């Protein structure tokens, strides 16, 4: 932890806590959660007929435990779910919420039904928000977080570190700016304490009736920075674009794999007759896209983020607006590497591989263009292309 950085005490406000039950028959939920934390696992899966299963460093790992029974998971639901959550589950056969377990930690919970029985997916959420440096994200991420306005999208598959990266960026702002930050989340994951900023975290179902209702009024709450948990529909996207275009800094996430797919996904929200209009709006509002992939380390247990960064430069804006041309994002990232700090996944992987942090096999597996990456490793490259130099000498990450 950097010297002088304030550490939060364990937060207890805005948090549903409970004492984990021990169900007859050997199902000790507290002990299972303790084992998840002990192994530094990210997720816990519970379903009937299987032992509790942890996700550790990206791999699923069954615990040495008897298969779970329907009554085990039903009793657990009665302990951890509030009355509104029970109703939501009864109506929709699934529900999202967050819980805190004293002495253990916070967890994001999705409870759902499969084959007529209850199942759970729990994500462990650290109490202490990590810094951008601690997460091994490139320094340009800190620069993006300090922008005064624009839409910043953090993308990747489930479990790629999107929420953790967003929390680090909010913390970065909290320590360096005096701003009003409003988050709309479903559910709230990381808890932020006011340092320099005034932070309001609103949870759908607890602090606001719905995502749509919160979005309709959020611009009347004098925000400087907005965090929208996820862009799920056209209304959310429209609000994000409008807020970014009217001088706010807006953060959100999408389940897309890279910058090109992210832009195509945004455009796909709109019908063909609106494409020209939305391309113009997007080109004006977008600040940056940060895409993440977590790669296993070879030097020690753990994973590091391969990070693609697209900054909305004049060339990127022109490419987004031009209806006569397809998106050419990979080449634009390459052209903006030196001047703007952009980087592709393959360049990020090359930096980790050059430093000896990840194996060649994993670098190749996670690369966007494995054949080109292999040639780069062998030293086969165009003589005029200097965009890879910093990544192949270990000067970047």
List the helices and strands and how they pair.
Blueprint: E1 22-23, E2 27-28, H1 29-38, E3 43-46, E4 53-56, E5 59-62, H2 70-80, H3 83-92, E6 94-101, E7 105-114, E8 117-125, H4 140-145, E9 150-155, H5 162-176, E10 180-185, E11 198-203, H6 211-217, E12 225-228, H7 234-245, E13 249-254, H8 259-268, H9 275-285, E14 286-296, E15 303-311, H10 314-321, H11 329-335, H12 337-340, H13 345-354, H14 360-366, H15 370-377, H16 389-392
Parallel strand pairs: 9-13, 9-14, 10-11, 10-12, 12-13
Antiparallel strand pairs: 1-2, 3-4, 3-8, 4-5, 6-7, 7-8, 14-15
Helix pairs in contact: 7-9, 9-10, 13-14, 14-15
Strand content: 15-25%
Number of helical segments with 4 or more residues: 16
Rounded to an integer, what's the Rg over CA atoms? 22 Å
Distance between the termini: 19 Å
Proportion in helices? 25-40%
Q: What average pLDDT do the residues reach?
A: 90
Report the top-level CATH class of the largest domain: Alpha Beta
Number of domains: 2
